[in-house]
Amino acid sequence: MTLHRALAFHILTLLYLVSATYDAYAQQPEFIKTAFPKGTIIHSNIRYADDASDKHLLDLYLPPQTTVPAALLVWIHGGAWREQDKYGDMSYMKNLLRTILEKGYALASIDYRNSTTAKFPAQIQDCNRALSFLADHAGAYSLDTAKIVLIGFSAGGHIASLLGLSNNNPVPEFYFNAQKPSFTIKAVLDFYGPSNFIMFYNSGDPKASNDPVSVLLGASPLKRPDLATLASPVTYVDRNDPPVFIVHGENDTVVPIQQSIVLQSYLDLAHVKNEFTIVKGAPHFGEPFDNPELRAKLFAFLASCFNH
């Protein structure tokens, strides 16, 4: 009887897990259902903060048939800090998404509060909380906390760089309850993110307050250079920073390519490992960034970081 009960318990547990995975799969956008390899384990809408905010959610995608703790790529969406959600930038990067899971990486996509409802540094605080949640629950999801990588696009590239470069510097404003998280970042993958807000303002009116950066900060960078400096990734570059992989479109008219050039200059001066790829003819975002040559460079860069 005991054996039968134990068997019944295991069967019910298996059925529950299958049902939960199916429900999580059903919650995903249609393009996600075709992007990931068969057998991908999906955990949808995990709450990473102790509240009911719809912006404090993350999705976790685990590679099929994994037998060891997986390196974790954390996806940070763009949208000018005031738009999009945790599915942002995925629809035009489906080949990269598939390759991440095929290579055995876990992928977490995190959401954060928009600048229209919460000013900087709320977005950084949210992402630090999400990363802390993932690190704290790494055992439950079989994640390798020694291999946490941030990947961000546009505004998400800015956040990824800011998180990664400030991780080894105490910045109380960036942490929930001013408590520095214990996780470390192994590498940053920055796709066309702003790096220096003093250089990045509305060229028509340097003191305008309705452009994305000014909305994020609550004032024009030239009126609040202190905030602009606090929010700029280049502020935190030092020799102990993680390696940074930078990508920018040659014809980007939204985030000037000089933003990536100056970031690399700071990294080079501090002797921080980095690689900069300019995608010929590419605009600010889109499918030109989901090409095989760039993917090969990206994963070779990650392999070199993990083997260092």
What name does CATH use for the topology? Answer: Rossmann fold
CATH H-level superfamily title: Alpha/Beta hydrolase fold, catalytic domain
The CATH architecture classification is: 3-Layer(aba) Sandwich
Low-confidence stretches: 8-22
| Gyration radius over CA | 20 Å
Number of domains: 1
Derived from helix and strand composition plus strand pairing, the structural class reads alpha/beta
Alpha-carbon distance between the two ends: 54 Å
Number of helices: 10
Describe the largest sheet: 8 strands, mixed
**What is the strand tally?**
8
Q: Strand order, biggest sheet?
A: 1-2-4-3-5-6-7-8
Shape: globular
H/E element order: HHEEEHEHHEHEHHEHEH
Beta-strand proportion: 15-25%
Overall mean pLDDT stands at 89
- CATH class assignment: Alpha Beta
In short:
The chain is an alpha/beta fold. It has helices spanning 2-26, 30-35, 94-102, 122-136, 138-141, 155-166, 212-217, 225-230, 258-269, 292-306; strands spanning 41-47, 57-62, 70-76, 106-110, 143-153, 187-191, 244-249, 274-279.
How would you describe what is shown here?
The chain has 308 residues and is of the alpha/beta class. The protein has a single domain, classed as Rossmann fold. 36% of the residues lie in helices and 17% in strands. It is built from ten helices and eight strands. Strands 1-2-4-3-5-6-7-8 form an eight-stranded mixed β-sheet, with helices on both faces. The protein starts with a helix and ends with a helix. Mean pLDDT is 89; it is low at 8-22.
